[in-house]
Design brief:
Layout lengths: L5 E9 L6 H11 L4 E7 L10 H11 L6 E6 L3 H8 L1 E8 L2 H17 L4 E6 L9 H9 L10 H14 L2
Parallel strand pairs: 1-2, 1-4, 2-3, 4-5
Bound molecules: adenosine-5'-diphosphate.
């Protein structure tokens, strides 16, 4: 049997396609709130990703360094089932603007209904990161704009390569 969910273990789920400095800020702040933070890449999603789950995990591994209590994972199926299996009592999410709120609110309430023992906790995005999304980063990169300072250096390089590959 899995351990009962602990509020000292949190899951930070997302697409991370690719990781941005906004995600990194959330990971850094979230890691100080809990004993273990599991950054988890969602496998089953309908969005057309630019990077495979394995590539996204690689980018996370290259950039999420120096945190002894942060782990990386990928998951399929229901987030609350994954959280339960890992003994996590907290789901961490970020809120950038009012536009994030509605979907986050729906997901948090649905997850609470599915597993009442697991709480969703929201952190406000850092003010310098609140306009950053993976989607916008890809759009700017595809059009030849600079995303320096918005994503980690290693991600910037990978984005350039992916843009070149996609335009072939
Ligand atoms: P999803 O497809 O689940 O929205 P994302 O990778 O886009 O996956 O985001 C994962 C989580 O990180 C979400 O809670 C999102 O609101 C949050 N997030 C994304 N970008 C930022 C940012 N720039 N600052 C803070 N939180 C962010």
């Amino acid at each position: 049997m899995a351990a009962p969910p602990s509020s000292r273990i949190a899951i930070y789920p997302g697409s991370f396609d690719p990781i941005t400095n906004g995600h990194l800020d959330l990971i850094s702040r979230g890691s100080r709130m809990v004993e273990r933070l599991i950054v988890a890449v969602l496998r089953n999603q309908s969005k057309q990703p630019w990077f495979t789950v394995e590539e996204r995990l690689q980018m996370l591994a290259e950039t999420v360094t120096g945190y002894a209590n942060v782990e990386l994972a990928a998951f399929d199926g229901l987030l609350v089932d994954f959280a339960q299996a890992r003994g996590a009592g907290m789901i961490l999410r970020g809120i950038r603007a009012v536009s994030d709120y509605e979907l986050e609110w729906q997901m948090a309430l649905m997850n609470r209904r599915l597993r009442p023992g697991i709480e969703t906790v929201f952190l406000m995005a850092g003010e310098e990161y609140s306009f950053i999304s993976s989607h916008l980063v890809k759009e700017v990169a595809a059009l030849g704009g600079s995303v320096a300072g918005i994503v980690p250096r290693a991600v910037e390089e990978r984005l350039k390569r992916r843009v070149a590959e996609r335009s072939r």
